[in-house]
Specification:
Layout: H1 3-10, E1 12-23, E2 26-37, E3 41-46, H2 52-59, E4 67-72, E5 75-76, H3 82-89, E6 92-95, H4 107-118, H5 124-137, H6 153-165, E7 171-175, H7 183-200, E8 203-207, H8 211-217, E9 220-225, E10 228-233, H9 235-239, H10 244-253, H11 255-259
Parallel strand pairs: 3-8, 3-9, 6-7, 7-8
Antiparallel strand pairs: 1-2, 1-4, 4-5, 9-10
Helix pairs in contact: 5-6, 6-7, 7-8
């Protein structure tokens, strides 16, 4: 490990300590502990309804925890005022399953909209430069004048990442980034997630059911079950176990392994 890697590992961008969250009698999170370091991809896995999305919403300040602390860049997320929260969210990027592109806008307009909304003083030349840069970063420069309806599912995902990158976030949350994609396009998306981390030095939490995605993109894997992280570490460390909850998840999901 070189000195830069050591420095990155020491720099914590998200810190979660003894986090609890329930909805009536549904105890979703039961004492979660996690750290995300600078320039690291952490993958959070678990069955549907296991609390993955709730965790992300708490980190983003959309839901308040019942107990425990969540710090983003050292600030306790449910203790800061509204202005601080808005400023903090500008450092976060979100890639949703549905891509959330505006159907009536071209690709260029979809990218220009958040850029101008958050920086009203930006010139046309600067905006064009920023748009060209992120489109090139995701390999979509030729789609600038197209509407979302003219794009494939994989292309929409790439434009979704470009729109996230346009505001230069330091943290990105990927929600099922390979959902609905064919295997080849999924592999391209996994490579793009890694390229974004390397090029933009982002720190990311990747929520996925796709074990190929987890193995390819995750520096560390966290397996969520019964409201807790029951196992964490590298891909091999997490899945080298006789725990039926994890073995069942592996056997059901990891089609590549079945086909070897």
């Amino acid at each position: 490990m070189n000195e830069q890697q050591k420095h990155n590992k020491e720099e914590v961008v998200i810190s979660i300590d003894k986090l609890y969250k329930s909805f009536d009698d549904n105890h979703v999170l039961n004492g979660i502990d996690m750290e995300l370091h600078k320039s690291e991809n952490v993958v959070v896995m678990g069955r549907s309804g296991s609390g993955k999305s709730v965790l992300i919403k708490i980190i983003a300040g959309l839901i308040k925890p019942d107990e425990g602390t969540v710090k983003v860049f050292g600030k306790e997320i449910d203790k800061i005022d509204k202005e601080e929260l808005i400023a903090l969210r500008l450092k976060m990027g979100f890639l949703f399953q549905g891509n959330a592109l505006y159907d009536s806008m071209t690709v260029r307009e979809n990218l220009e909209f958040p850029l101008i909304r958050n920086n009203k003083k930006i010139s046309d030349d600067e905006a064009n430069k920023e748009i060209e840069q992120v489109l090139n970063a995701v390999g979509m420069a030729e789609t600038k004048g197209q509407l979302p309806s003219e794009l494939s599912g994989g292309q929409k995902k790439r434009i979704g990442i470009a729109r996230t990158l346009i505001l230069k976030p330091e943290i990105i949350f990927y929600d099922e980034p390979t959902a609905g994609l064919d295997p080849i396009t999924s592999n391209e998306m996994n490579d793009l997630i890694n390229d974004v981390k390397d090029q933009y030095k982002t720190s990311s939490i990747v929520i996925t059911h796709d074990l190929t995605c987890a193995k390819t993109t995750g520096d560390r894997i966290f397996m969520l079950a019964d409201g807790k992280f029951i196992r964490q570490g590298s891909f091999d460390e997490v899945f080298d176990t006789d725990d039926e909850k994890i073995k069942g998840f592996f056997d059901y999901n990891f089609i590549e392994e079945k086909m070897k």
